[in-house]
Amino acid sequence: MGVDPLTRPAVFLDRDGVLNRAYERDGITYPPIDVDQIEILPGVAQALELLAGQGLLLVVVTNQPDVARGVQRRDTVEAINAFLARQLPLHAIFTCYHDTPDNCECRKPRPGLLTQAAHRYDIDLNASFLVGDRWSDIAAGQAAGCRTFLVATPHSQVERCTPDYEVVDLLEAAHMILTLPHM
User: Would residue 183 count as lying in a domain?
Assistant: First the structure.
């Protein structure tokens, strides 16, 4: 069984906590409230340039349940996504706007966002990677067949997952990805 020449590998990226700063209040992390609050994390641009330079698709997969909860507007989330797409070499951004009780297929830890992207962009999930900062990111990546990298934070809930690799940030993950076989 060889690699399908019509598909290509991707790096799936969580948004808040991996690409940009997540804000903490009362022990819980939150996304930026608007575009003015976005702070791209150190090393992110360099990491993405390295990965894109090797022909890897860069696809953001992000849960944004605050829209379903009524505390964030969908157009604000879309403006944040558009800002990141202008600043970084991202190929696509897939967003789940549901909350856990909605029981949708796209909310991580389910792999729906990854499989949607795979169908749209002919991505080989088994040759792909996921970088996230929460157990639910890792679970989604594993369910899709990707190798997973956990950017460990106090909010990762490491005890709930077993990533393939644990890293301090996206730049460390990028360097590791470039040493692994993917094509």
Answer: no
- Residue 169 is assigned to a structural domain of this protein: yes
Closest CA to 12 of 110, 105, 80, 92: 92
Report helix, strand or coil for 165: strand
Which residues belong to the active site? 14, 16
Domain of residue 106 covers 10-155+164-177
**For the segment 121-162, what is each residue's pLDDT rounded down to a tens digit?**
999 999 999 999 999 999 999 999 999 999 988 777 877 899
Total tally of structural domains belonging to the chain = 1
CB atoms closer than 10 angstroms to residue 118 = 22
DSSP secondary structure letters along 24-79? EETTEEE--SSGGG--BPTTHHHHHHHHHHTT-EEEEEEE-TTTTTTSS-HHHHHH
Q: What is the pTM of this model?
A: 0.94
